[in-house]
Structures are given as C-alpha cells and as structure tokens.
Amino acid sequence: MKEALESELGAIFGPGEVVRLHRLPGGASKEAWAVDYRVGETVHPLFLRRAGGGVIYRGTLSLATEFRILQLAQAQGVRVPEPLAYFPDLEGREAFLMRRLEGESIGARVVRRPEYSRARERLPEAMAEELAKIHAIPLEKVSFLPAPASPAWRSALETAYQNLDSIDEPHPALEWGLRWLAEHPPPERSPVLVHGDFRIGNLLMDEEGLVAVLDWEFAHLGDPREDLAWPLVRAWRFGEDAKRLGGVGEVGPFLKRYNALTGQDIGEEELFWWEVLGNVRWGLGALQQARRHLKGEERSVELAVLGRLAAEMEYEILYLLERHG
User: Fold this and answer.
1) What is the reported pLDDT for 29?
2) Residues whose CB falls within 8 Å of the CB of residue 2, separated by 6 or more in sequence, listed in order
3) Domains of the chain, earliest start first
4) Rounded to two decimals, what is the model's pTM?
5) In sequence order, which residues have a C-beta less than 8 Å from that of residue 133 and are 6 or more positions away?
6) What angle separates helix 271-294 from helix 152-167, to the nearest 10 degrees?
C-alpha cells in the first residue's frame, strides 16, 4: 500500500516519501493506520482510515459520507482531526486521510491511569459541549443522509430487530430487552444529527482533557437522547462501573451542561430507555462481529473475543430491567 499512498500524498503535499506506515490495533470494522510523510525536512503526521472487511451495523456510513460529515463537524467547531482527503480506491478499498493528533483513546487507560485524572474531572462537561455542537448542525446541511423516521425511537428499535434476525439464533435476554422497549416507548424529541457512537474509546484525550471526537461511521439523523445515553452503557465504563458516565463521572453534570447549552430540558430518567437499547445494540454488535470471524470473512482473535461480550450485555439488560421494576 505504501506506493499507492505515496502517489496520493504527493498530489496533496508534493513529492516525498512515506517514512512510517503502521497499522494500529483496535477498530472493529475499519482499518486505522499511522502515517508519516516526509517532504524535504518536514514530516507530516497523518492518520489513514480505510475500509475493513465488514460492518458492525446495518446503515453504517460509507467512508465518503463519513468524510463529508467530518468536514461539516469541523466547520461547526466540533473538535475533530482535520479532514484532508478522500480516496475512493486505495488498493481496492475506500479510505480517507486526516491530520494525526496526539493523545490516548484506549478506554481502559483513559478511565484508570493517574496521568488522566485531571482530564477525567473535566470530561463530563467537555463531552456535553461537543454533543451540543454536533446536535446544533443544521439538518439542511446533512440532507444527504436518509430522512429521520418519526418517531426516531421506532426506527432504532426496528433496526435492532433486523440485526437480531440476521444473527439467526435465539438470545432470550436480548429479545426480552427489545420487547420491554417496544412496550415502553419514550416521548418523542425533535431529530438532530446524532454521532451514533459517542463514548469513551472514541474520544481522544490528553492529560488536560478532550482533544477530539473520533469515528463518525454511525452518524445519522435521530433522537438526541441516543447520543446522551450511549456512554452510559456498562461496556464503555471499562471496569469503572461506579461512574455511570463512561467510567469517568456522573450523569448529572454532563446532562446539566448539555441542557444549558442547547435549551433542552432532558431529564436523567429519559435516558433509561436509550440506555437499555444501547446495551441491546452492543450485544448484537458483538455477536455480529464474532460471526465475521466464525464465517471466515475476516479471521481475527479480536473479533472472536468480541463474541463473549454479548453475554455481559445480556446480563446488564436483565439487571437494568429488574432494578427498574
């Protein structure tokens, strides 16, 4: 891939040489590459996002659309890596290029390492501020996305049922969670641009706080509470279960700051429905990823290990619904 990439980068930065091309770990459905491109004495630190062997959920955006949304987010003032170029065919797969920022995104490190203690204190309000900017992007600017369903919760539920059917095996706890959701629909909210995967693990951190919001492949038009509740899913606490907001803090300050910036009046109790849905969705996502490995579509220990996480999500669904009564 080095030669193909050098040709593309030469058109952007001028003739030079790729002096580093390193595939990074993680990324359940997309390849991630650290790239250093040298032109004379200048080295450009870059990040390449390239299509992988499959997708986690139906409706996952193409990289062309994800790149377009990244450009809109940057124009809105959202903290994102600078988008540089989209490549429709980089050795048989689409890809796009961004400036590489320094920081940490591995969730288990963010929630535990002492050097990020100051950042963790600031993170709940910083997360709220970024979500407020994302949700303020005018809908007419994202008219290229499918129109939002009305109500948005019904579309989210139907998609979850479709994903469950595609697995083609029984998972009673997931099915019970979906049945509860169908029988307890939430009140409707006006649609916004939803990031779709806003959580610890997709936020780049340094020791002072939030650096950038990453991974926009699940962006869509939907209910703002979907983004607000997604970081409450237990899997995204990375073992720091007592801190409901992504293992770094409490929901109250996060939601208070979001409401103050957006003029919304979303109560913490409204997030419960979406938290249950989030656990169902990630349980389904883990099963679908494992099947990519089991079917031989993409042999990967990481994908195989993801399959066991479904049981944790099922346990969490049962716990949440029993506690709720």
Assistant:
1) 65
2) 18, 21
3) 2-8+21-99 (3.30.200.20), 107-324 (3.90.1200.10)
4) 0.92
5) 73, 76, 77, 78
6) 30
